[in-house]
Amino acid sequence: MQRGLVVRSVGQADARQICLELTDDGVAMVMSGERIGKLGLDAFHEALSDEEHEIFRRCLQKLAQAGDEIIARAERDAKRPAPRKGAAAAVAS
Question: Residue 6 phi/psi, 5° resolution?
Fold first, then answer.
């Protein structure tokens, strides 16, 4: 907000809400980010050979799959009921 990219206002329907909106300068910053991203992507593309691109793509695919597995495991663990306090004692008896 200090840079003038975002404006904060109180919600009209509910005064407890805080609304954030991009200013014209904020929109311009976002749009320039897309251009900068494309320039960076082009530079990265030029830095690698076709073989290196294929290796990089496969590595990213493996990392994405590993990330998906981590999320799925965490979601399964979150759904699993916590063990009851007396359950461990009953099994040990």
Answer: -135, 145
- State the pTM of this model: 0.46
pLDDT tens-digit profile of 40-83?
Answer: 989 988 999 999 999 999 999 999 999 999 999 999 988 877 67
CA 61 to chain centre: 16
- Phi then psi dihedrals of residue 78, to 5 deg: -70, -30
Nearest alpha carbon to residue 29 among 13, 6, 60, 47: 6
Specify the residue for token string 């404006």: 7
> DSSP states of 21-90 as a string?
EE-HHHHHHHHHHHHHHHHHHHHHHHHS-HHHHHHHHHHHHHHHHHHHHHHHHHHHHHHSPPPPHHHHHH
State the virtual CA torsion across 4, 6, 8, 12 in degrees, nearest 10.
130
Q: Residue 2 corresponds to which tokens in the numbers above?
A: 């200090």
